[in-house]
Amino acid sequence: MVVKRIGLVAHDARKADLVDWAKARRDLLAPHSLIATGTTGGALRDATGLEIECMKSGPLGGDSQIGARIAEGKLDILVFFTDPLSALPHDVDVKALTRLATLYNTVLACNRATADYVIESPYLLREYRHGELPGTYE
């Protein structure tokens, strides 16, 4: 099994949804290295008991810290439950984070349905090299 580095981020209105999702997927998340923005990480840790490395709160730089991990190639998956109906004062940071995930070909799940597909993917447990055809490597 390959340990993935998974970032967990949620807007305020979606934190409870991410916590519920993580509780339901706790056993699938547990073997992986989990990184979250501060407030989200604390809520996830309290609800699941999972070991989570917490960055700063999103508006205080946590989104940027997660973005730096992506740019450094130190994040495999970003689960970012966004709230598309709320204007956010740190919207520029949010756009930067999603732009970096897209630029660096990082798996990005912005809602529960996509996160379910990602966490259930056979690629979660094995190495995945961007741009290679499935089955062309061990």
| Approximate shape | globular
Task: Give the % helix.
Answer: 40-55%
Q: Look at the structure and name the CATH superfamily.
A: Methylglyoxal synthase-like domain
What fraction strand? Answer: 15-25%
Q: What does this molecule look like?
A:
This protein has 138 residues and is of the alpha/beta class. The chain has a single domain (5-125), classed as Methylglyoxal synthase-like domain (Rossmann fold). 41% of the residues lie in helices and 15% in strands. It has six helices and five strands; from the N terminus they run βααβαβαβαβα. It has helices at 15-24, 26-29, 38-48, 62-71, 91-103, 112-119; strands spanning 5-10, 33-36, 52-54, 77-81, 107-109. Strands 3-2-1-4-5 form a five-stranded parallel beta sheet, with helices on both faces. Strand 4 (77-81), helix 5 and strand 5 form a beta-alpha-beta unit. Helix 1 (15-24) runs parallel beside helix 3 and helix 4 (62-71) runs parallel beside helix 5 (91-103). The model has no long low-confidence stretch (mean pLDDT 90).
